[in-house]
Amino acid sequence: MRHVALLFLIAWPPTAGTAQTASDEPPVADRPVDFSNLVGVWTMRVEASPTDAHVEEPITLRIILAGIGPAKYEPHRKHLKLFPESFEADFYIQELRDEHRIERNSNTWVFVYRLKPKHDKVKEIDGITLWYYNPKSPGKRKYVPIFAPSISLTVKAKREAPSDIEIRALDLPETYYVVPPASAVIGHSAPFAISAGDVALALTLPPILCGIFVLAWRRWFPSDAERAIRIRRWAAPKAVSLLQGGNDDPHEIAVQYLAERFDFVPRDPTPPEVFDFLKRRGFTLASCAAAERFFAARDAGRFAGMSSADRQPSLTLAVTLINALEADRCAQS
């Protein structure tokens, strides 16, 4: 069988490990129950060590599979069906997953198991079979079995636990065996007492903790009114910071500042609209005129096709306008 498998390994195309055709798919018809989901040409070698053991003592079993086939149908531990049903009557079987290994250079897969004989009538390891599908097998029989040769074992009766353990009495003083009175073992604790400080702490601590909780809740989850106050409070510092960065449009920053600070609605206002709005809010005529000049200069630059290199005067005017509005008594009230 091994020589036949080697001939098929030579005939198998080099790309069989990576390429896959429809003919490589193992059909459901005539599929054996113990099919191990392997396709290609495979060989199997079985090793056991030691072959001389007592009942329930471990024997390491190595199953070495070598061959070539599609990557989808390479050996995998969860698909292998190597042991017959009668195997469990003679052995306890434990899979040693950490010792499995793959040797890609030689297309070899090693699977390791620990066997423990259940009785001393076990004479061999026999019945290990690998069923695989070979689409290039001659004839109609494509599902091919490999029967591992039996391995002779010498299994002896279970070792008995040593019975020559010497138990020696300890040489202890006589006082060790004297039972003390209960009063000496169980101590008397002082009666539980509550001081005035404990009472004061118990009364004041809950309100303090509740207050801290409420303050933290309001800080992280403010109400709509508190959120609006925070937006107004930080509108000017945020606008000045953006203007100093020099990467945003001064006009958009100024409009956003007016919207957040004074609830100014228009997104592209005209200079007269800004003047009338600030005048209605009670700002001085000087502040209203400064705002009107800023937006008029912006419109003039926009219609004149002002480049990004000419924006510095607008940045300066925007900062001056925000400072003037924040200094006005109307903004401070």
List the topology elements.
Blueprint: H1 2-11, E1 35-39, E2 41-49, E3 52-54, E4 59-68, E5 91-95, E6 101-103, E7 108-117, E8 124-125, E9 129-133, E10 143-147, E11 151-152, E12 154-156, H2 182-185, H3 196-220, H4 224-245, H5 250-262, H6 271-280, H7 285-303, H8 312-327, H9 329-332
Parallel strand pairs: 1-9, 3-12
Antiparallel strand pairs: 2-4, 4-7, 5-7, 6-7, 8-11, 9-10
Helix pairs in contact: 4-5, 4-8, 5-8, 6-7, 7-8
Q: Any overview of this molecule?
A:
By secondary structure, the protein is an alpha+beta fold. It has 2 domains: 2-156, Sandwich (Immunoglobulin-like), CATH 2.60.40; 224-332, no CATH class. It has 9 helices and 12 strands. The chain has helices at 2-11, 182-185, 196-220, 224-245, 250-262, 271-280, 285-303, 312-327, 329-332; strands at 35-39, 41-49, 52-54, 59-68, 91-95, 101-103, 108-117, 124-125, 129-133, 143-147, 151-152, 154-156. The strands form 4 sheets. Strands 2, 4, 5, 6 and 7 form a 5-stranded antiparallel beta sheet that branches. Strands 1-9-10 form a 3-stranded mixed beta sheet, with no helix packed on it. Strand 6 (101-103) and strand 7 (108-117) form a beta hairpin. Helix 6 packs antiparallel against helix 7 (285-303) and helix 7 (285-303) packs antiparallel against helix 8. It starts with a helix and ends with a helix. Residues 1-18 have low confidence and may be disordered.
